[in-house]
Design a protein that fits this description.
Length: 473
Amino acid sequence: MNEIILIGGSTSKKDRIQQRERYKMPPIGLLALSSLLKMHGYKVNICDLYLEDFSRKEFVEYLQSLSKSPLMIGVSVYTESEQECLEICSIVKKAFNKTKVVMGGPQATFAYNKLMDNEYVDFIIRGEGESKIIPLLEHIKNPNSFPVQNVPGIAWKKEENGHRIINLTENAPMITNLDVLPFPDYEEWKLSMKNCSHILTMVTSRGCPSSCIFCSSKSLSGSKYRFNSSEWVFSMIIHFYKIYKFDSIAFFDDTLLANKLRAKRICKYLISYADKKSFNWVCKSRVDMIDEEIISIMKNSGCGSIHFGIESISQKILDRMGKRVKIETIFKALRLTKKYEIRPDCSFIIGLPDENLETIEDTLLFADVIEKEGFGASVVGITTPFPGTEICENPEKFGLNIKVKDISKYNLNTPICELEDVTLNDLRKAYFFFTHQRHETNNPNLAGRTSEEIKKIRQDFTNRLKGEVSIGV
């Protein structure tokens, strides 16, 4: 009875196919839990539904081939996959009626009341799971000697007078020393690194000191930036390279450069190993963490691209969203990456608080200029009030009118909120321009500007990117 099955929930078949086409990213959170569970003597199997397709019958047969009577089945759930994951819980509970079904992940953390009201869900782990899953399993095995109240950071329920009562236990403190955790269990990922384009995917830090109103990272992982040491990171790289012989590394930390000293040490370790194997690698960063020194050492260590969440080219909008970035800092960062031949992958959001058609149009034009002038790549998403974000908790404060309640549509591609001066149709038109029309026309035709006005705006952005115009901050 020490067998555990961890399931990475998915959404529609269409979404799964798109995920596979873009990048076969392993479920890092489940792999981290798997390592910890094995360290404590449990047998673990992982079922990644983003990369595997089953009929209902095939799904049950597959799970039963992994274990006839698992102690626990865990299901990881994101906002857009909530309904599918609840269906997974239903299938699982009917197939293993004595097995405890546990949900975790961002949506479980922020919507535990709604999910716990489902008859097929026994427990929910809120926040990071490593400090909670072992005590929870101890309770499941010994409910009388280790009562549920002793398990930190979970939601549980009991029936009283025909009513379902949902209870919370006191949360556990965040893990401060991430080096005490074992390496993620890549060996358990059924598709292995062989089907992952020879890329090692890593998450080496948690927590976010920023206060962006559209992001739930701070609510989920805390405001304190916690990280694995550079020695831990490099050891993991070499350990898995000896097994999988990958060519590239993808750091999926929200902001790899939040601690520059650590980032530099990681780069120096990679440089020191270059005579044996050099790696191409990518990461995420804020534009205000880029300077000449760090970008130079990143380039020398193999960095090929940096993802920047630029969001908007309006200072008013940046300030409103809590980005704490100046416009000129964006141009400086893009000029530096251009100089060192590192590709910036820039992401933008339209429909943010206080937006109007002109600010949206400016952002679309800037994103397009970045690509057409050879400064990087750009993607555009639509403001989405994910649970755990400020705009979800208090949309009225930010002038957002949430029109779409079906959370399966919360995917950055679908308009969800209207503003006083921006309708859902305006957002659809803006998004359609960027994804389908911008290679045919330079004018989004949102704000009633003439072709000559659009041309001047585009030229101004081009000049600023090239450093030919000095702008104030």
